[in-house]
Design goal:
It is a single chain. By secondary structure, the chain is α/β, with parallel strands linked by helices. The protein has 3 domains: 53 residues, lambda repressor-like DNA-binding domains (434 Repressor (Amino-terminal Domain)); 129 residues, 3-Layer(aba) Sandwich (Rossmann fold); 130 residues, 3-Layer(aba) Sandwich (Rossmann fold), CATH 3.40.50.2300. 42% of the residues lie in helices and 17% in strands. The chain contains 12 helices and 12 strands. It comes from Nocardiopsis suaedae. GO terms for molecular function: DNA binding.
């Protein structure tokens, strides 16, 4: 049978109220009494009832997070970064996935709220259809959108400047000698897909040759394979550089090019976006735009902590600059003359 706080109080020779305040770090407890209570709790191997403590304090020291799909290496790594950051503040993390379905997402948000999380981090799976559920959640607890965001804002957001990242990739390819480009990305159903497509279209005039080939599907390995096969249908017009909307697409493109004997980077250069753990292990290693996950996680958790403390605006927007990481899937730019 588990030890009760009443038994701890009796061992320490204090009231139950005093024992409770001493164990929770509350004020109004004399140092000698606090010491006796802590010693008694240790001797009795007392484990506090977290549920009861939450009911008393009206806080659970927990944050809920909903991501589109944990099988996506980017989201898996992002969740780990958020979990580490939350733990530094003494908070646990409850994870749910939406499977890119706004109805599932709404249900997961309700479930986390039913578990009385103190705050929420949401990665909206759809830029429009996710709005009602996320805004409703934001009316109940502090909520921040991470990585992806709703059209037109809709609360606090922390993410990277995707357009700047794509611009850096295009500038690198052109500087390395690419005269024609193609873009392989996702249909713009979420904010990142839209921003990266916009970034490519805005940067395309920097390339001296054709850039009009834009292939849109989803952020999957399979789509990367299919898109590469479409580009290979006319090898004479293969682009010299392929800008991919994420690393998973780029890995599919690289594999399909290798199967068809296309030399990367001599014949075609390929870039990705995110810098997932597999990017460096690709053959050849993938040039990509790195998202600073630890910084993103820290900003998201800090934004929630400030909201919980009553000192942060509910519509804070933070766009962090990504970093281009050059690897062997692209050529080095020639030295200036």
């Amino acid at each position: 049978m588990s030890v009760t706080i009443k038994e701890v109080a009796e061992r320490a020779g204090v009231s139950v109220a005093t024992a409770s305040r001493a164990l929770s770090g509350g004020r109004g407890v004399r140092p000698a009494n606090r010491e006796r209570v802590l010693r008694a709790a240790k001797e009795l191997d007392y484990e506090p009832n977290a549920v009861a403590a939450a009911l008393r304090s009206r806080t659970t020291n927990s944050v809920g997070i909903v991501v589109p799909r944990i099988s996506n290496p980017f989201f898996a790594t992002l969740v780990e970064a958020v979990e580490r950051e939350a733990a530094r503040g003494g908070q646990g993390l409850l994870l749910s996935t939406s499977q890119y379905d706004p109805e599932v997402e709404a249900g997961q948000l309700r479930s986390l709220l039913d578990r009385r999380v103190d705050a929420l981090i949401a990665v909206p799976c759809h830029s429009e259809r996710s709005r009602a559920a996320i805004e409703a959640a934001g009316q109940r607890v502090p909520t921040v959108q991470l990585d992806l965001c709703l059209d037109g804002g809709g609360g606090s957001w922390v993410g990277v400047d995707s357009e700047a990242g794509i611009l850096a990739a295009v500038e690198h390819l052109v500087g390395a000698g690419a005269r024609t480009l193609a873009y392989v990305g996702s249909e713009p159903t979420d904010s990142s897909a839209q921003a990266r497509l916009d970034g490519y279209r805005g940067a395309a005039p920097l390339c001296p040759g054709a850039t009009e080939r834009v292939l849109l599907g989803d952020f999957s390995l399979e789509w990367g394979h299919r898109a590469a096969r479409r580009l290979l249908e006319n090898r004479r017009e293969m682009p010299e550089g392929i800008v991919c909307g994420n690393d998973t697409i780029a890995l599919g493109v690289l594999r399909e090019l290798a199967r068809n004997g296309v030399d990367v980077p001599r014949r075609v250069m390929v870039t990705g976006f995110d810098d997932i753990p597999f990017a460096e292990l690709a053959e050849p290693p993938l040039t990509t735009v790195r998202q600073p996950l630890e910084q993103l996680a820290a900003e998201a958790v800090r934004t929630l902590a400030a909201r919980l403390g009553g000192g942060e605006e509910p519509h804070r927007r933070v766009a962090i600059a990504p970093e281009l990481v050059v690897r062997a899937s692209t050529r080095a730019a020639p030295p200036p003359r």
